[in-house]
Amino acid sequence: MRHLLSTADLSRDDALRVLDVSEDMADVATRQVKKLPTLRGTTVVNLFYEDSTRTRISFEAAAKRLSADVINFAAKGSSVSKGESLKDTAQTLAAMGADGIVIRHPSSGAPRVLADSGWVEAGIVNAGDGTHEHPTQALLDAFTMRRRVHGAASRGRDLDGLEVMIVGDILHSRVARSNAWLLRTLGARVTVVAPPTLLPVDLSRLGVAVRYDLDDAIREVRPDVVMMLRIQQERMNEAFFPNAREYAGSWGLGAARFASLPPETIVMHPGPMNRGLEISDEAADSPRSTVRDQVANGVAVRMAVLYLTLAGDREDSL
Amino acid sequence: MTTTHLIRAAETVDGTRTDVLVRDGVVVELGPGLSSAGASVVDADGLLLLPGLVDLHTHLREPGGEGSETVLSGSRAAAAGGYTAVNAMANSSPVADTAGVVEQVQALGDRAGYVTVRPIGAVSQGLAGTHLSEIGAMARSRAAVRVFSDDGHCVSDPLLMRRALEYVKGFGGVLAQHAQEPRLTVGAQMNEGALSAELGLGGWPAVAEESIIARDVLLADHVGARLHVCHVSTAGSVEVIRWAKSRGIDVTAEVTPHHLLLTEELVASYDSRYKVNPPLRRQEDVDALRAALADGTVDIVATDHAPHTSEAKCCEWDAAANGMVGLESALSVVHRTMVDTGLLGWADVARVMSIAPAAIGQVAGHGRPLAVGEPAELTLYDRDVTRTFATEHLAGKSRNSPYLGLELPGRVQATFHHGYATVLDGEVVDAPTVARAAETVAARAVLAAGEPASADAEGATSR
Q1: What residues in A contact B193, CB-CB < 8 Å?
Q2: Is residue A1 assigned to a domain?
Q3: A186 and A152 within one domain
Q4: What does the alpha-carbon distance between residue B191 and residue B205 come to, in Å, rounded to a whole number?
Q5: Is the pTM of this model over 0.80?
Q6: Contact A107 B311 (CB under 8 A)
């Protein structure tokens, strides 16, 4: 695979290949020496136009476990506000011999622009673009679900028939978009639940069912997975909902609502969590919460993505 | 340069063939088999003769934006597209909100000589939407401004809009509104709908345009003023305007060539050449706009020619500037979307691209019938060729055309402004030749007026 820009482009076979390679990568973490020589001599640049320590260190750990050289480029303050244009930064990195660029950018589509531009030959991995996509997050979420469902027998399996409910700020969420497409490709059914203000006016291209009332949705859908999304504090000032208490009461996973879930339902959150707003301690700290698994699996999945974009046959596109 | 041209065997919009003899800026003879003695002959066999096109919505960028366009370069782009007059929008820097700026823009246009440049005055000081600009001073200036617009910004304050409509009425002017409710379009990057949800780009909802148009037609009705709606882009806007016209409200509307051809699907590439305001919409909107232009609900085609430097476009989508160049391609796009589809005949094209825009903008001497004694503002168009549109077909300074690489029908073979050629054999005539011809015309006007102090020629001298 040449680049990883979007989960919408991934076929079922491509997606399963990433997840299966991720299983191999996860095994590496259980060894005494947690390192492979695969990307020795390869330079990976983490080009981050937004602060995201969690995602950056996950990619950094992944690259280092594959023996790549890692350069962290914090280009905060995009070309909109100040400093160098994306074009000049890309050409600078190309001149330095970057083989892979992991890009986090506040503009939707920036990784696509970079990949299509001809400014740089490097493989591009989208680490989150605006309110568009976050494909490695979706892959690690799918990986986490698959392990919970199929356990050690996960290789080669998809998520056929799984009921996944994504709750929260769908409108602004790149995690929701990437998950919607990937989970559908893997055979899961996705329902999004949110106040109408936090949903796009037309969701027909996302291929998901839409619900407004979380309690009704839980009762009627009986989800296998509930994924709670982070609520940005500034959404309240923008009148998307009246206040935190009303949001938590209606769309947060409080203790009582957590207790109303089917007993096998797992609880996911991409982090960082707002405890007491979209998720309660009871849910976040329960054994059914996968929050820490997601973080651990993130490294394995990103190792797989870097391996497939940088070490494999890069002409063979995903 | 000769001032006498014989256009041989052109086809008029009603299908008759005629020779046209042009001398000293005026059509002096019409009919078959005219003598070519003393005239330079233009073989127009098979070419369509149109009245010189008039654009009501052009961004010439000067003063302040000379990196992307100047009055001269934009005039060349206009001539290449078959235009003989353009109305220059007010969002320059400084803003065209005083008599000084509009007179300067007009003078630059006169000196360049490719087209008649009619400045549009800002409605509000600095386009800020709070205080009226010097509308009266601009109307009484040598530029005699008749069209006022804050284009690029909506006059969103309903009280300011009411006052502006009333005030402009006093000069017999027209207010051209950029209809965009600002609060509904915070962070807007593309048409709001299923595709904006997929691409994660901020939505520009149709209702933000339609609600302003609805408000403004009611205001225009209440105060008895003229309203013109810029770049109508949605099917809903068409319905509102159709309703207003049925009620007898004095409203006119324009559609851009790009809204007649292109849809939002192009945005999926995140290629910022397709970023424009108002944004590209759905196919249903394109179809409604074509139907509205065909039935007269939308009166005219206006280009919204919006040049931008490569730097302003060659970047991530939400950092890129809004706008696309359109003067050079407009006639071909209308040919493809309206004529090849059978929605308009060529006489209708003359109406929507010359006669009606000249009337709305009160552009004297343009959009006139083909008759002896009329000003020689003429365009010769070859309908029978097809070209792959490319940068070599752009005559302005900027390259941000959405049509590059697209097959478009037709090409402008010749353009005559004030009776001299600005485009000949499909090539734009060089700037010094055109400027000399323009000087000759100005001098003749001075002699004819017999009173040098009041003539336009003064404005054409350096200042």
Answers
A1: 201-202
A2: no
A3: yes
A4: 6
A5: yes
A6: no
